[in-house]
Amino acid sequence: MRDPDFAVLGIGNALVDVISSVDDEFITAHDFPRGATTMVDLERAEAVYADLPPAQEISGGSCANTIAGLASFGATVAFIGRVRDDQLGKVYTHDLRSLGVHFDVAPATTGPATGRCLVMVTPDAQRTQCTYLGASTFIGPDDVDPALVARAAVTYLEGYLWDQPPAKDAIRKAAAAARSANRQVALTLSDPFCVDRHRDEFRDLVADEIDVLFANEAEICCLYEVDDFDAALQQVRNHCRVGALTRSEHGSVVIGGEEMHAIDAESVDRLVDTTGAGDQYAAGFLYGLTYGHDLATCGRLGSMAAAEVISHFGARPAVSLAELAERVVR
Amino acid sequence: MRDPDFAVLGIGNALVDVISSVDDEFITAHDFPRGATTMVDLERAEAVYADLPPAQEISGGSCANTIAGLASFGATVAFIGRVRDDQLGKVYTHDLRSLGVHFDVAPATTGPATGRCLVMVTPDAQRTQCTYLGASTFIGPDDVDPALVARAAVTYLEGYLWDQPPAKDAIRKAAAAARSANRQVALTLSDPFCVDRHRDEFRDLVADEIDVLFANEAEICCLYEVDDFDAALQQVRNHCRVGALTRSEHGSVVIGGEEMHAIDAESVDRLVDTTGAGDQYAAGFLYGLTYGHDLATCGRLGSMAAAEVISHFGARPAVSLAELAERVVR
Question: What's the whole-model pTM score?
């Protein structure tokens, strides 16, 4: 088997984050589930946007945030996702490519605009999201080149893709290509409501196709319909080669075969915006995994990257994670 | 005379800031004058953008930043500037209107895209700017409604407008309308290179039309072609009713008739990005002026607003200036 050209290939929704600070009443008034992501149509997205205070626009998308984090660690990475040939699409493309990410999916020339995610940050630094997928829904099997999948040690998928049938087909094609090239497939469950929408398919996917699973406590409990984190943990052990389960300020639990590690969260001076915590945890973990570190170190790298991103606005690292990593990996 | 409906009406270039952190070598390699603003065409703007690291997009434009600051103080404000009917134009419009700013100039439906300013922040927190005016150059006399000017206590103009002949005509029309309605006109000189390009016209304008002048040390020395701040100060006293001259960490000097006040800069815990310091100083000062405070208080309000904006990325306030002002005005 050839050495991979890329540590990780990500496949996910290409979304520009529109970030603003709101009070708790805003979330209540718009009836959003706090801390979760609601998928909305263009009309609803525009109505919510009109009510929002001034915002800042930063490239986002869960999986792409992880890819950006991996690039910050110095990993070689690629991304598959769809924008339109509009201003936000150009911003999105610039922000990925300027990090050195291999990203060559042609932008759509017709149809909906580049997708966006309204990120509403409440005073407790929690984020509630409202996503209009726009052009990102164009992603389909034709965008997945099996040769590109074969060039990556790990293909990393986001659960949110499950909301679109063509994207689901793209995922199945990518997973099959990875398997036949003897590469690994990683998945993040993305959101408990997303898990709830696709529970059976996710369970089959996790059991049959996934080597490395990322989930937070709410997502993994939702997947196995259990109330208790430990009960969920015992299930994961039977289904995945590696599982990394995050628990916010309580750190994470990493399992792999007979191994199990409890990893502390890294403390932060000032919690500003939790957006991207899970995405950057995955970045640190996958960086460790693809660059030959043991599972406990992978978890610590994840904690470190998550701590960096929650100390500022925006879901991508503001400083070089490669430099920070020197403190963890000696 | 009717009471004004607006404290301040701003007329300026409508620009979206594209903010990124760069090292000193980037500024040198691209041959930009450090700390100043270079006007570029689309081709150059795109070439620079392609070289920039990932960025965040935030609505900007010097005069509009001041208007946004005034809105944060709770002042009633209006703005005249031009965007295109594109994504960045919608973002720009949203960000102003959501602050309560009266902004009803129709976006251009043809021609260049919404203008943008590449803000390059170096490790010393200094910003060097590269501006592609785009649709903002569409501003002309037809955009200035004398009735709107008459409804504002102060019409506030930015020197950058002088780079475009139609905008210059718009300014002259606005100044005449303000005068005939017995309202005041304020001007910021914007940038020493801008002053250098239009020195004679600026001198005439300041002598004949301007009630309140804002300038930093480099700009005011450039206007009067003197090396020494004090020499410039003596000139200003002869020409303007009120002058507010800023000197970065050395504070500001405020003059008006026989009055002269030396105002200290407000200290900040952490200097992050000096973008918008002058714009927010003007916001604080004009808030004080239009809400009946003495000149020394106006200067202190300016220092306070400048200190807030340099403690974070972006040129508009991140917190309520009305709340901060309670510390200054009792």
Answer: 0.92
Q: Distance (Å, rounded) from C-alpha A136 to C-alpha A113?
A: 9
Return d(Cα A148, Cα A78) in angstroms, integer. Answer: 9
With respect to residue B110, please indicate whether it lies within any of the assigned structural domains: no
Domain membership flag for residue B22: no
pLDDT of A314 reads 87
* Cβ distance of A53 and B99 shorter than 8 Å: yes
pLDDT of residue A268: 92
Interface pTM, i.e. ipTM:
0.89
Residues of B in contact with A54 (CB under 8 A): 59, 68, 94-96, 98-99, 316
Distance from CA of A27 to the nearest CA of B (A): 17
Q: What is the largest CA-CA distance in chain B?
A: 56
Which residues 77-106 in chain B show a CB within 8 A of chain A? 86-88, 91, 94-96, 98-99
Q: B58 vs chain A: nearest CA distance in angstroms?
A: 5
- Per residue in B33-44, pLDDT (tens digit) is 998 899 999 999
As a whole number of Å, the CA-based R_g of chain B is 18
Three-class secondary structure of residue B323 per DSSP: helix
Give the C-alpha separation, A101 to A76, whole Å.
7
Task: Report chain A's terminal Cα–Cα distance, integer Å.
Answer: 29
Is A206 a member of any domain? yes
The verdict on residue A1 lying in a domain is no
| A54: nearest CB among B49, B59, B88 | B59
Q: How far apart are CA A212 and CA A141, in angstroms?
A: 22
Mean pLDDT per 10-residue interval, chain A, length 330 residues: 90 96 96 92 96 96 98 98 97 97 96 96 93 94 96 97 92 96 96 94 93 96 95 90 94 94 93 92 98 97 97 91 88
B54/A99 touch (CB, cutoff 8 Å), yes or no: yes
Structural domain total, chain A: 1
Residue A98 and residue B57: Cβ atoms within 8 Å?
A: no
Contact call for A95 and B55, based on CB within 8 A: yes
Given this model, what pLDDT does residue B77 score? 98
The domain in which residue A258 lies consists of 6-325
A59 and B54 within 8 Å at the Cβ level: the answer is: yes
- What confidence score (pLDDT) does residue B133 get? 96
Burial of B258 (0-12, 13-18, 19+ CB in 10 A): exposed
Mutation for testing the B interface, residue in A98, A272, A311 having most B CBs under 10 Å: A98
B86–A91: do the CB atoms touch at under 8 Å?
no
Contact between B56 and A88 using a beta-carbon 8 Å cutoff: no
Token code pair at residue B86: 């594109």
CATH number at residue A190: 3.40.1190.20
